[in-house]
Amino acid sequence: MTGSTKTDPRANAPLNEEEMDEQELESQEFGDDANKDRYMTFRIGDQNYGVEILHVTEIVGLQDIAEVPDVPGYVKGMINLRGNVIPVIDVRKRFGMSEREYDDRTCVVVVTVDSATVGMIVDRVNEVAVFGDQNISPPPQRSENAPGSEYINGLGKNGENVTILLDTTQLIYSDRLQV
After folding, report:
1. What is the value of pTM for the model shown?
2. Mapped to the 3 state alphabet, what secondary structure does the chain carry?
């Protein structure tokens, strides 16, 4: 493991070897429960969204994206992330929202579900938030007229703020994106 680094999505900073060993030990001690109720939150437009932290591999800055022909419009292309080529989707476009120019806050949240890894372009990353069961409401009734509603897992409440909690598996494996 010498010389390796991993991004801690909770702090958005590289971990050193000692911190990685500590994090691995913590996850062995507590299993998946250590990340239960934890969501990486990000912003798209004026709305906060979240994905379960257990799916987040890392957060990287926007980089060169190789365009790929004959893919849905929300698939921006592929990036080479330390030797691994992964597809990148623009979450705004995935949800049927208008495009906006990328800026210095735009980043890629890399998620892995089962063996599929996908980068999600978001306007900006917020923080890791904890939403216990008592603070999560069921998703609104799905509507054919509401693009992206099929990806909503629930609504996380924190004071007056509402975060739309996404179903990462549905986002990656839906019939519209074949990874």
Report:
1. 0.75
2. CCCCCEEECCCCEEECHHHHHHHHHHHHHHHHHHHCCEEEEEEECCEEEEEEHHHEEEEEECCCCECCCCCCCCEEEEEEECCEEEEEEEHHHHCCCCCCCCCCCCEEEEEEECCEEEEEEECEEEEEEECCHHHEECCCCCCCCCCCHHHEEEEEEECCEEEEEECHHHHHHCCCCCC
